[in-house]
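Hello forum,

I keep getting stuck at the same step: I have a sequence, I want structure tokens, and every attempt I make locally crashes halfway through. Rather than fight my setup again tonight, could one of you with a working pipeline run this one for me? It's a single chain of 136 residues.
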Amino acid sequence: MKSLLFAAAFSILPALSAAKDSIFTNYQAYEKFVTEHVMARKFQTLILQLGGRDELTKEELRALNRQMRSVMPKDFTQSAVIKSVDLGSGFSQEARVFWTGLSYVYYYAFLHQREDELVVLKFNLNTSSSKIFDKF
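Reply #2:
Ran it on my machine without issues. Output:
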């Protein structure tokens, strides 16, 4: 399967409005959001909420969403966290996999758990597991 880099590591630092999008009340809220949106292939909303609002034009976002849905034509039925690394001071990394049949997509996140919120600092979605594992 052709390796496609779908959402190039969005950072909360360049834009204040993106930071607001990347904040969740806790890990459970973040996990529920990511799982529901990837499983149902709601990539446009996923990218916007995780910090891509100021990184892509509406046209680029629509094109990216079409491309991703074309490569992954069916909703995913299974998911799992396949790697999680505690980096200390509330920072962590995680890799997830979503699949249905023989179709897989891999997700990476760099997170910061603050006192009363979880911030997604970067995320990435890719059909290549090596592109995700290279981030660890």
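The helical segments are 16-21, 27-39, 43-52, 58-71, 129-133. If your local run keeps crashing, start a new thread with the error log.
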